[in-house]
Please model this.
Amino acid sequence: MKKYSKVIFLIVFLFSIADSQPIRQYGIKAGFSLATMKWVTAGITDNQIRNRLGFDVGGFIEWFEDPLFSFISELDYVQKGMREDIPVTTEQYPDGTGEFFKYDCRIDLLSFSLLPKARIEMGGVELYAIAGVRLDYSLSNSVSVEGEEPFSKYTEQAFQSFFDHFKRTQFGGTFGAGVQLKSILPFPAGIEIRYSPNWQNTYSDRYWNIRSRSFEFLLTVYE
Model:
């Protein structure tokens, strides 16, 4: 029960202010994330790490009726992680045989955001910017490796064990911009782009410092 206490507290905090503040609007957001991790050892960054595409879906409540400023509390399910293609080498081909071991590392997160919002309305169009704080809670993770057996199975198990030691909770920021169409479509909808860096290492020891970051591309529907 103790390990879920932060999650329970955040859920209560995000929605308890409903009793005292007016709701401007609410809705859902859905799209995808483009995530990666920065692996650094002895000051050297692993440049073979690649972006991983994942789903992002959630709901939000926007508070306050001020003409220029409001506040968003948001809860998302988002898939993050990384990919890496490591070349197969042999004594005969030390620079690679042309084959690769393909690593796909996925982390499923519950993400809580508190996002101040500044906006400008022009007719039926609203332009806005958001910047705030975020808490990610890891629900699960998985690692898959494609390549020649038995090495791929062995490294998959080793990577899975390594990922199981990553932190369950991570603090970070979210910065973004979007456009909302109010009267042009049959229902209010829009597009939002966000950058979400973590402010803590996902994992660190005497060898590695690993930190996550992602971009999100979302469609929004308002009520």
Q: What stands out?
A: The mean pLDDT is 85.
